[in-house]
Task: structure prediction
Amino acid sequence: MITLDHRALAEYLPRQRWFTGRDEAVEVQEIHPLGWLAEPGSGLGVRVELATVSDGVSTTVYNLPLAYRVELVGNLEHARIGTVVVDEVELHVYDALVDPEAIAVLMAGFAAPDRVTAELQYVCNSDIDLPLDTIAPLLVEQSNSSVIIDETAMLKFFRRVSPGRNPDVEVLAALSEEYSDTVPKLYGWLSTAEDSPVGACDLGILQTFLRTATEGWESARVSVRDLLAEPELAPEDAGGDFAGEAERLGAATRHVHEGMARLLPSGTWGAAELGALADRFLARFADAARVVPQLAERREAVAECFDAVRDLTPPVPVQRIHGDLHLGQTLRTSINWKLIDFEGEPARPLAERTRLDSPMRDVAGMVRSFDYVAQSVLTQVGESPTISLAAQAWTERNVAAFLRGYGAPESDLEATLLRAYEVDKAVYEVLYEAQHRPGWIAIPWRAIPG
Result:
């Protein structure tokens, strides 16, 4: 079986935004081709290949749809990975997800799933007829690669894959028909077969593309900028007041949670699970405090917040949740807010991403996101006492509106969990910024007790 040179791929991968390894130690251990969707003898060969890659610390399987071309394609040079020789013919290898002709081949499997290779399985969840007249790669994602098809559908390939059902497939398959007002509609998905070299794993999904939607993160930033242009105003008096949208987003989030509780697994936590959750919180805080010594000054107050979780009276209801909810995972359409990207944090193990949890974890993620968006604007416009107070007022107004729309917390139990998850998220942010953007390290300190 002819495959791409391992060294060429090891040089290409660290340049991609979706690659998470340490580029100084990349080793491509194996490449598993899954059979030709189009034979290269026609001038364009297309197949999906799975590369097992080590960075000296961990091993990851990457999903690589590749295009093999006889002729060089000038406008695809940035996506050229290397060359292979087949029957004395040199073929140039490109990332297929930036090649419109190759994307059309990948899409064909949804129309004729019985004509694809034995190693691949296309599942059509809904009828869809796309003329494939306009194919445009979406250039803003990081952990995945997406392509817009005729401004109607989006083909999203998961770049890091592992055996088992991807949560994005599982959740959208359960919710997208009945809850299409708050999540994208799922048309189908692409998986490896059970007997593939890496077992059965989901490679990508085809879902509706929300052409006129605006991203929640950017919409919120516009609102903050409007207020900070006139920081002496109250947030409700500024031109871009976001509170109404925040309240509607809270209601949409509650609607999605209710659907997940009804259509996906749910359960309860007892004292042992609550104790384990508090232990995880405390362990993450200890890890962060070793990197950011200033956190240690707040150890007692933080421990009290986390220990309150241990003291809750079970049972505590838990269910499937989004797992990585923030403003960047939301879209505002002309009708409603939609939640997107249900795969959780791709770098975490699948079992962890699908573990039952309290919905308050998602709520806390959104609460932190409102503060984060305000602080992100502050780093650009510069701080002054008046501007900082205005940003804080914006955050408090929109957090209150979101919680009002969601209807939380409804009890002391929810309030305790929400506070603990919010503190845990803020501690994570401190650690992340200390390691990646030290200039932002002060962002979440208002959320950490002490």
The CA atoms of residues 269 and 316 lie 5 Å apart. The first helix runs from residue 6 to 12. Residues 214-447 form a domain with the Aminoglycoside 3'-phosphotransferase; Chain: A, domain 2 fold (CATH 3.90.1200.10).
